[in-house]
Specification:
Length: 173
């Protein structure tokens, strides 16, 4: 019987070592991006009513709950899709539900762990309180600003015309 020998040239060895190097670097980069990924998770929940929210509506309701601009960019599309396809969605962080959004009669009913309950009328683009329209100049009752880290009292009602970014979030990463 003839013996089979592998005749590897130096070029073959370089190619094999290069592949091993690239694969190991790829695995290290995947592991490091997993650590930087947000701890937030959007979970769609079944409901009877569904609605298609505009990008402005998503920004308004997420700012009211207390999400930062970066978190809105990261989670907004998932929230919009959850409300469009399922009618309700919850945003959790480390298995703690931070906010629940439910569509009912062309309104978004929101319950936030740190900010309370809100109703946003999609047709009028305004906030409701106890079934009545809430004036835009009068902020809704909320927890004192000192008890919510990173939130300033003037940020209770979002203003899309004011393009200044909010520096903080109630959920610091």
């Amino acid at each position: 019987m003839k013996s089979v020998r592998n005749n590897l040239t130096s070029g073959d060895v370089i190619v094999v070592l290069s592949l091993i190097l690239f694969l190991s670097l790829g695995m290290v980069s995947c592991a490091s991006t997993r650590g930087n990924k947000s701890q937030f998770q959007v979970i769609p929940v079944g409901s009877q009513d569904v609605a298609e929210l505009s990008a402005d509506d998503i920004v308004i309701v997420m700012r009211r709950v207390g999400f930062s601009d970066e978190q809105i960019v990261e989670l907004g599309t998932q929230l919009r899709d959850g409300l469009l396809l399922s009618g309700a969605a919850q945003i959790s962080r480390n298995d703690i539900v931070e906010a629940i959004f439910v569509i009912r009669d062309d309104k978004v009913h929101i319950t936030a762990r740190l900010r309370g309950n809100f109703i946003y009328d999609l047709q009028k683009g305004s906030w409701l309180r106890f079934g009545r329209r809430s004036p835009q100049s009068q902020p809704m009752r909320q927890a004192p600003a000192a008890s919510i880290p990173g939130i300033h009292p003037q940020s209770t009602l979002p203003n899309l015309r004011d393009r200044q970014t909010q520096s903080g979030s109630i959920w610091q990463r």
